[in-house]
Specification:
Largest sheet: 6 strands, mixed
Mean pLDDT: 85
Low-confidence stretches: none
Radius of gyration: 36 Å
Strand content: 15-25%
Number of helices: 4
Amino acid sequence: MTMSERFIIKPSLVKSGRVMPKQANLQQSGFTLVELVIVIVLLGLLAASALPRFLNITAQAQSAAVEGMSGGFATGVTLVKAQWSAEGNSSGAAGQEVVMDGSSIYTNENGWPAKTSSSSGAETNSQTADECLEVWNFILQNPPAATSGTSLSGFEYQVTAQSANPDLCEFTLVVNGAVDPDDRNFTYNVGTGQVFVTVP
C-alpha cells in the first residue's frame, strides 16, 4: 500500500458510519433519563437518613432549653437564699421579706423563696400554683411566658404545685399549645431549694 492510498477515504467507510460528517461534530449536552433517576434515588436515600437526625435536633433543643431555664432558676433561688442569710435571718419564721433590686419576695421558714404577693401563707406546705408563678416571675429576668392555668395557647411553660411535704413547684414545657408530650420539666422543692430537671 502506497502512502496516497492510506489517506483516501473509501465510500464504504462513509456509508457504514465510521466517518462522521461535519454536522455531526456538535456535542450533545444534558442528562439521560437513567442518570436523572439515579440522582433522584440518591437524594431520596440521603433525605431518608438525614430526616430523623433533624427531628432529633428539635427534641435536643427543647431539652436544652428546659435544662438552661432550670439552671437560671436554680441560680436565682440560691441568690435569694444567700440574701436572706446575709441579712441575718435564721430558720423558723415563714414570711420573711427579702428585697432584691427594689422588689420584695417572701421566704418560707427555711429561707427559700415562696411568694411575692404577701408574707402570709409562705410556709413550705402551703404552696399554690399561683405562688409558684410569682416565684418564677421574680427569680427570672424577662422570663418566658408561663401560666398556672389550663389554657396554654401563647405560653411556653405551665406552672403547677404538687402537695408534698414540702411542696413542689413544677414548670413544664409547653409545645404547640399543649403540655410537652415528652414531659420536659423542672421541679423546685420549696423546702430544700433543690431544682430537679426531667428530660428524656
